[in-house]
Fold:
Amino acid sequence: MTTAGWFCCSIHGTLETAKLIVFVALGAVALAFVGYWWNAVRRSEGDASPAGSAHGVVPTWFETLIGFVTNFFDTFGIGSFATTTSIYKLRGIVADERIPGTLNVGHTPATIAQAFIFIAVVQVAMPTLLAMIAAAVAGAWLGAPIVAGLPRRRIQLGMGVALIVAAVLFSMTNLKIVPGGGEAMSLQGWLFAAGVVGKFVLGVKRTVGIGLYGPCMILVSLLGMNPIAAFPIMMGSCAFLMPVGSVRFIEKRSYALRPALGLALGGIPAVLVAVYIVKQLPVEWVRWGVVLVVIYTAAAMLRSAIKESKPVGGGVAAPPEVP
Structure:
């Protein structure tokens, strides 16, 4: 074997090892989360009532259907928190103060499944993938004290307007009015640095309840990457972030067990179906899907900002974030 051939094989082996390490880490996180949740349920540390009135652990068909539908669209990058919250509030399934915990706990298994599948089927360069996931996690962990004193409403307004502008620019790119976009599955040089910094900022802003999916799709696309590359990056980031937050909700018993189980049981098969569809979509459709997702996310942020400008009585929690 020539020196060049040995070097290429060595690099390939290193990248495959890195992917294996990611899968092992995801598996460890998944097992730890499921084990902790199972033990908490056995110790009766969860609320077995969907809204504080009815009892039972086995989800109803409707609660499971909610998990399927919301995670199906979540796999397309729409996000699951806002859609699930709307259904819960419309049907009175979960008390307002328990909605954030129910969403985090219930949607975590499907999010981890999305990360496993997208990292396996979408071939993003491992240095780019690992760096951007690590940057998002670091931003979320280090960002809390930085943003603790910032007004959440102003950040939501700013991000909402910025996302609308980005959606307009990206639409112009799709229509070939302005140049941009690309098919790359990796970032090099200053684009790599910009991607890492951008993901760190997105991780920071997640600590104030601003979602990750829409902004991540725009960031990846504007950096010249194929929009499909955003899926393993954003799902991988959330797969490492959500279990940690979910454990805190379980500890405080601040969630509704039965609806959460419905989200988990309905969500995983939905992911398997949706991933196949996403993988088969033409790139042009995915790009227009990015625009729709970003407009939806921007509207949700602006709506939340407007709601938070009004006094909230009765101890009702602020609306949860859009992932």
Observations:
- The two ends are 48 Å apart (CA to CA).
- Residues 14-308 form one domain.
- Residues 3-42 form the longest helix (40 residues).
- The chain has a mean pLDDT of 78.
